[in-house]
Structures are given as structure tokens and as C-alpha cells.
Design a protein that fits this description.
The complex is a heterodimer of chains A (482) and B (337). By secondary structure, chain A is an all-alpha fold. Chain A is built from 26 helices and four strands. In chain A, helix 6 packs across helix 21, helix 21 runs antiparallel to helix 22 and helix 24 crosses helix 26. Chain A starts with 9 loop residues before the first helix and ends in a 9-residue tail after the last helix. In chain B, the strands form eight sheets. In chain B, strands 1-28-27-26 form a four-stranded antiparallel β-sheet. Chain B has a four-stranded antiparallel β-sheet with strand order 2-3-4-5, with no helix packed on it. Classes of the chains: A mainly alpha (482), B mainly beta (337).
């Protein structure tokens, strides 16, 4: 396995920024490449958001992002956060959990409870997996999404009891049907305040008379089955939290969560439903993370740190081994473009664009989330991806693009060769590596643009030549990968 | 800092007017400002970037009368895209500000389009983000030109007269001001939004005093969005992020803090009676749950009766305080005892 040196290794740091964030500007790359790789990893993992637009500003200009009632409003709020934060890893982790613990506004109707769930992912997404599962089980959006309000001591509804085992922790094949029922019994009484009214408003899909009321977790002791249960070989009067403790002790849980992490931060894996039938793509990466899981007392951050420091993550072969999700593409491109000191309408267009590309934020297609990988790419979605990205990088009014173009001109000079222009563009677009074939095509395009210009192109001509190259780069296969 | 006088007034809850109507019709959707015509009819601006069909001005009264609506989303005459403020002139003409189009549109007292004016910029007479409108006793229009951090005095047809204010946090300086009102003497009160205070000026724009610091205690504000002054000089401040309305006397002595206590309006009751399942479920509904958060915005999201983003306050001809309870699509009405 080929590995690379750490310090000042721009391609490796660019790889890290693409996976642990949404790519990086040349300045961000330079900062992280100037320190040891391990320090760079810790900087990204420990970053705290200081630059997101404050809620009061957002709410003043986008009142719909105050009640967050609808999907466009709630999705746009999140996109805005992802675009403006200086702690992108936190948002990337929230996106990861949103994919694993897939919960959809399409059933819940109100976007506010989804946004609250995402906020919970920000708060607990890098802590203890045990704490995360407890919070998830108490999360009102999850409770109503998986019908736990209908899970009663005298009449269980096993939906949540099944999914916490099948999709959220252990995976199919590692528990019995009896475990599912006992798990459901342990979660009886975990509901929301004003259960009947809230569930009815959700079913009736109406904000009348006075808008949606946000849900709040409620433990109804009178509806909890406090009887003896046998779960995964242990017997006791288990509560939901006891069941989570037992789940977290299981090696299968560590391996399943690690495989999810590899699937998202490492390389595209098989779709989750196939996991019971096929071994992980990279068992060594899974081992490194499961070791970290138990050594750290179930720390999610420790698992991801172990992954990012692993030889398999750093290897050349792991780079560009995933297809960018629509959200990654949209956010990464907008972060390059800059100009978000005040709330704008861009976030709505970006949210819609992500949907056109196949990823409606906060509305995954099923409880299994998005399949990802090559599923992201079709003729239609590819057109959407290219149109969006080329539209953004082609807009010289955007301060980030203006700055990018100026930097390319400064680096290459007035008489730059097509090859120098292409190299500079690739470098400043996050150190994008492209195949020789792609590079040849880009250089030919850059040269063609040059020959069609006048003998002494003015500054505006140069700007547009560079912008055209940038637009072609974001249409390449490589820009679709991460 | 003022202290309590021990003789605070009482401000009593009167009624709730409204109903969530996100695509038009009787009711409101995300109301952001209101103005009361001389006959007591209340004109309410509804706004949302994502609910374009709901953008309009609705007309009602505090006795639950409904008198239709006018205006729609767009850039044509009589339309608006991001309406922020509404007021009535001395002749009851209606003036609506749009912070995206940077223009003021003038309507007849019944909402028929008449004219429009406004040009974006920072030169005298140009506007950038008009966020509040009020007429002076002399018939001039005061415009909170919020992105320029100033107040401009204009003629009703948009001719520049004078202005005051600049960016900053000193006396007479603003940080994205929002609402304003005038007292019986013509003094001007401005909700200096991001400075968390209200500033008071003479009718000519001379600084008199300012009140408030950032916080959530009595006498403190968190992003005050509007201010209203009644005939006796009592001051009502929409303490937006704190989800309350604070009341002061003319000397800034704290009088009361209103958190909202909405009831089911007749329009809402009609809806519930037409939906028996909801009426039944609501009969077992506990409106005042014990919330597990102390963040005012989140508390309001969970307790329907409370204000949720109280964005605008106005005093009607009978001295009633009308609060635009924006995220609950209704008005809550109070009156000083």
C-alpha cells in the first residue's frame, strides 16, 4: 500500500478536507498543510463554529427560517449553515448521521422538528455513541417517524425496536425476532407531550389554526412495560437506556457503525441492505475503528480520528473513491464562491438544486437513507450538477470567484500558457487531481479559447477565459468525486 | 438603569384575532407589520420568501371582522416581494415599504394602487432596506432606512427633506434599526435592533436619550424589533428574541412584561368545529406543557399561547395594544387598565 508524507502534503490535506469537510480554499489548504498531518486532523475534528450567520440575522430577512415549517425553509437553513461555518466537520458529521438515522419531513410534515434533530446531531454527533442512541431514542422526530408514540405497554409497536437494531446499531443477522420485541417493550412510554394532538396534526398535514407546535419528548411511566425482559442474552427489568447499554457492548455494533463511517468518510461501499451478505471492502479500516470504539468508551470522534489517521485512508487509492453527494457538491461549490455576510436567496436555490440532483435534504427516500455511490449519477442528475456548479463558478460577481480569478491571473501572468492556466485553476479549486485525459482536454479547451481571442486580450477577456476553464473543470468526472 | 416605581400599570390581555392562512383568504401568514386606519380597521402585511401566494395585505378589525386583502407577490405596480412596513397617512392612504425592491408603494385607503417611489442607494433620498414607516403630525413620512442606518424624513411622494443617523453604537447611531413610532409630542422612538436598545429623538431628530442593554431581564432587550407609544406616553417594545413585549412609562420605568396568552379566535374555532377529529383531540390538549428548554424561541415553539416572534406593536384609536405574533399567524390584543 502506497502512503505519502504528512507535512506539507497538499494532496493528502486536500483529500482530508474533501472527506472531513466540503473541500477547501487554497488558504485553508495551506494552513493545514503547514502542520503535521495528525495536527491537521485534530484541528479539523476539534474546530468550533465561529462564522455561521447568527440566527437573528437569518430570521429577520427570512422569517420562514424562524419557524422552519417547510422543507425548503428548513433545508435552506441547514445549507446556509454548511456554507458559512468554519467548522465544516461538525456539519459533515451531522450529514452523516442524517443519512444513517434517516428521518424524513415528508412524513413528519413540519420541518422544525427535523431541524431540531439535526441540531442534536451537531451536539452529540461526535460524542459517545451510547449518548447518541439515547438522544436519538428521545428525539421527537424519530419517535413519530417510527411510530413509537403507538408503542404501549399493553400493545407494543415494534417499529423503533426493530430499526434501532437493524439500521441504527447492529445490522441484520445479529439479533433475533425475540430481541426486537423485547427491545420494543423497553421503549414503551417513550413518546411526546400531547401525543394525540401532535400525531393527529401530523396525519392531517395542517398548520392551522396557529402554525405547528414543536414536539417535546415525554416519558410516560404509566405506559412503560417495567416487566422482565431477555435481550441479547441478558435478563432484567430493562428500560430503553438499559437496552442501549447492551447494544453498545456488542462487537457487532462497533463493526456496523464503523462500516457506516467507512462508507461515508472512506470509500463507497455496497448499499447497506447487502452488508449481511458481503464482507466490508476494507476490513483493516473497520478494525482500526472498532478498536478505537472500545478503547475510547464508544467515542465517535475517536473512531473517525482513527480512520483519518489510518494508512488505508491516507493511501492514494482511497482518494476520489466516493461520488460526491449532491449536498457535498452544492455546499463545496458555494463555499468557493463566498459572499454570505448577509442572508440571501442563494440558499433556497441551492436547496432546490440539491433536490434536483437527487438529494432532498431532510427528506431521505426511506428509513434506509440515500444509497449514495453511483446512484447519485444519472443523465438527468449529471446535467443538474454541471449546470449548478458551472453557474456558480461562472459568476464573477461572487467575491470568492472574483478572488479565485485574480489569484489565477497573478499566478500565471498575462502570457500564461494554456497548461499553466489549467494547472493553476486545478490547484486553486482545492488541488483537484485529474486524469491525463481530462487534463489534455482542459488544456486543449484553454488553448482554443486563447486562439480565438484577439492578439492582446484585455483583462475582461482573460477573466472570461479563466472562468470558462473553471466551468469546464466542474463538469469533469473528477469534480464529481470526493 | 431605572428601577421599578412600585406603581406599575396593568396591561390586560383582551383577545386574539387571526388564523393561519398561508395561501390567502381570511387570516394571516407570517405577519410582519400592521397599521390601524382611523376607523379602527387593521391592515396587516403577510410575508414569506417561500410562500409567495401568502404575500399580501389583509384587512380586519379587532372584533374579528374580515374585509379582504390586496397586493400580491411580484415587481409590478401594487405588488411587493419583501414587504416590511405599512402605515396610514393623514388622509388614510396606505404606504407599504419593500426592503428588497427598495420602494414605497402608495394605495388608496381601501388598497387600490396609486403610485410608487424609491431608488436604491445611500445618497440623500435614496433608500436601502426600508424597514418602518410613520407619518409625523406635519404630514412628513419618516422612513427607517435600515441598511443605511439612518432615519429619513420624506414627503409623502418621496421627496427628501432631511435625515439623521449613521452606523455605530454611540448616541444617534444605529445598528440595523427596525421599527419606530412617535409620541404625542412628536418625539421619535427607534428600535435600534442590533444595538439592543430604543433611542428617543426630538421631532427634528436631535438625540434625547436611549434605553436598554442586551439581556433577557427586565429593562433588557434582545433584538427589539418595534416600539409603540400610547397617548399617555407609555412605551411598548417588541422584545423580539426574548419573545415578549416590555412596557415602560415615559421615564423608562419598567411597567410590565407580556409573554402572550392567546386564545382560540372565532376564526380558529370555526376551523376546529369543521374538523371534529382535531376538536376532539384538542379537548385533551395541554397548552402549557412544562418545557425542557429555557431558550425563549424554543419555548414559544412549544407553547402555542405564547408570542412566537412578536415582531410589530401598534396602538389603535381606542388605546389597545395590537401585537403581530408572526410565527403564530395572529394578532394578540392587550389594553392598559
Amino acid at each position: 500500500m502506497t502512503t505519502v508524507q504528512a507535512r506539507a502534503d497538499y494532496p493528502l490535506v486536500a483529500h482530508l478536507l474533501r472527506r472531513a469537510g466540503f473541500g477547501g480554499t487554497s488558504e485553508e489548504l495551506h494552513d493545514l498543510a503547514s502542520v503535521d498531518y495528525e495536527v491537521a486532523v485534530d484541528r479539523l475534528l476539534d474546530a468550533v463554529d465561529t462564522t455561521s450567520l447568527p440566527d437573528d440575522l437569518i430570521r429577520r430577512y427570512h422569517i420562514d427560517q424562524s419557524d422552519l415549517r417547510t422543507l425548503p425553509s428548513a433545508g435552506s437553513y441547514w445549507i446556509g449553515r454548511m456554507v458559512t461555518t468554519d467548522a465544516p466537520f461538525v456539519e459533515k458529521v451531522a450529514l452523516f448521521w442524517h443519512r444513517v438515522f434517516a428521518t424524513a419531513q415528508t412524513k413528519l410534515i413540519q420541518g422544525k422538528v427535523m431541524s431540531t434533530q439535526i441540531e442534536m446531531f451537531r451536539e452529540y454527533g461526535l460524542g459517545s455513541f451510547r449518548d447518541m442512541l439515547v438522544q436519538l431514542s428521545k428525539n421527537p422526530a424519530m419517535i413519530l417517524f417510527l411510530d413509537n408514540q403507538d408503542n404501549h405497554r399493553d400493545a407494543i409497536n415494534e417499529n423503533y425496536g426493530r430499526e434501532i437494531l437493524e439500521l441504527f446499531s447492529m445490522g441484520v443477522g445479529n439479533y433475533t425476532e425475540e430481541d426486537v420485541k423485547e427491545c420494543a417493550r423497553a421503549f414503551t412510554g417513550w413518546t411526546v407531550a400531547n401525543t394525540d394532538y401532535m400525531a393527529l396534526k401530523m396525519r392531517n398535514n395542517t398548520m392551522r389554526p396557529y402554525g405547528y407546535i414543536a414536539w417535546q419528548f415525554k416519558y410516560d411511566e404509566s405506559d412503560h412495560d417495567d416487566g422482565e425482559k431477555t435481550f441479547l442474552g441478558k435478563t432484567g427489568n430493562f428500560t430503553g437506556e438499559d437496552v442501549i447499554d447492551i447494544i453498545c457492548e456488542q462487537p457487532d455494533t462497533a463493526a456496523f457503525v464503523a462500516r457506516h463511517m467507512y462508507h461515508y468518510f472512506g470509500a463507497d461501499e455496497l448499499p447497506v441492505p447487502q452488508w449481511p451478505h458481503f464482507p466490508p471492502k476494507d476490513p483493516e479500516a473497520i478494525r482500526v475503528m472498532t478498536d478505537a470504539y472500545f478503547e475510547s468508551g464508544y467515542s465517535i470522534k475517536a473512531m473517525l480520528r482513527a480512520l483519518f489517521l489510518s494508512e488505508s485512508f491516507k493511501a492514494e487509492a482511497s482518494r476520489y473513491a466516493r461520488v460526491k453527494s449532491p449536498v457535498e457538491l452544492v455546499v463545496g461549490t458555494l463555499r468557493l464562491a463566498g459572499g454570505y455576510e448577509r442572508p440571501g436567496a442563494d440558499v433556497y436555490r441551492a436547496t432546490a438544486a440539491s433536490g434536483f440532483m437527487g438529494q432532498d435534504l431532510l427528506a431521505p427516500p426511506s428509513v434506509e437513507g440515500w444509497m449514495g455511490g453511483s446512484d447519485w449519477i444519472s443523465t438527468g442528475t449529471m446535467v443538474q450538477r454541471v449546470n449548478f456548479a458551472s453557474g456558480v463558478v461562472g459568476d464573477l460577481e461572487r467575491p470568492g470567484i472574483r478572488e479565485l480569478v485574480n489569484e489565477i491571473k497573478a499566478q500565471t501572468g498575462q502570457d500564461a500558457t494554456p497548461k499553466a492556466l489549467v494547472d493553476s485553476c486545478l490547484k486553486l479549486l482545492g488541488r483537484l487531481d485529474v486524469s491525463d485525459e481530462t487534463r489534455s482536454g482542459l488544456v486543449a479547451f484553454a488553448g482554443h479559447g486563447e486562439s480565438s481571442e484577439s492578439a492582446s486580450p484585455d483583462d475582461s477577456d482573460k477573466d472570461h477565459q479563466i472562468v470558462s476553464i473553471l466551468q469546464l473543470i466542474v463538469a469533469t468526472r473528477e469534480y464529481q468525486l470526493v | 438603569m431605572t428601577t421599578k416605581t412600585g406603581t406599575e400599570i396593568k396591561v390586560n390581555y383582551v383577545d386574539t384575532v387571526g388564523f393561519g392562512a398561508d395561501v390567502g383568504g381570511r387570516g394571516f401568514h407570517l405577519p410582519v407589520d400592521l397599521s390601524v386606519r382611523s376607523d379602527g380597521r387593521v391592515f396587516v402585511i403577510n410575508r414569506s420568501p417561500m410562500h409567495r401566494r401568502g404575500i399580501r395585505v389583509g384587512i380586519c378589525d379587532v372584533a374579528h371582522g374580515w374585509y379582504g386583502e390586496f397586493g400580491s407577490d411580484g415587481k409590478g405596480d401594487g405588488q411587493f416581494t419583501s414587504p416590511t412596513a405599512i402605515t396610514h397617512g393623514p388622509d388614510d392612504r396606505v404606504y407599504v415599504a419593500d426592503e428588497e425592491l427598495n420602494r414605497i408603494t402608495v394605495y388608496t385607503p381601501d388598497g387600490e394602487y396609486e403610485s410608487k417611489w424609491g431608488e436604491v442607494g445611500s445618497a440623500p433620498g435614496q433608500i436601502h432596506g426600508p424597514s418602518a414607516l410613520k407619518f409625523t403630525a406635519e404630514g412628513d413620512l419618516l422612513v427607517v432606512d435600515h441598511q443605511n442606518n439612518r432615519i429619513q424624513r420624506m414627503s409623502p411622494n418621496g421627496k427628501y427633506i432631511s435625515s439623521w443617523g449613521k452606523p455605530g453604537f454611540g448616541e444617534g447611531e444605529f445598528n440595523l434599526p427596525w421599527g419606530l413610532d412617535l409620541d404625542a409630542s412628536g418625539n421619535v422612538y427607534v428600535a435600534d435592533w442590533r444595538n439592543d436598545r430604543v433611542q428617543r429623538f426630538s421631532p427634528d431628530g436631535e438625540f434625547i436619550d436611549m434605553f436598554g442593554v442586551h439581556g433577557n431581564g427586565d429593562n433588557q432587550f434582545n433584538r427589539p424589533s418595534d416600539v409603540a407609544v400610547d397617548d399617555d406616553g407609555f412605551i411598548y417594545v417588541a422584545d423580539w428574541v426574548n419573545q415578549r413585549v416590555q412596557v415602560f412609562d415615559a421615564g423608562w420605568n419598567f411597567q410590565a412584561s407580556l409573554r402572550g396568552q392567546a386564545t382560540v379566535s372565532p376564526w380558529a374555532q370555526e376551523y376546529l368545529e369543521a374538523n371534529a377529529d382535531e376538536l376532539d383531540a384538542r379537548s385533551r390538549f395541554n397548552p402549557y406543557i412544562e418545557v425542557d428548554t429555557d431558550v425563549p424561541h424554543e419555548v414559544s415553539a412549544r407553547v402555542e399561547a405564547f408570542f412566537w416572534d412578536p415582531i410589530a406593536v401598534e396602538i389603535d384609536p381606542d388605546g389597545r395594544l395590537i401585537v403581530a405574533d408572526s410565527l403564530r399567524h395572529r394578532l394578540q390584543v392587550y389594553k392598559r387598565a
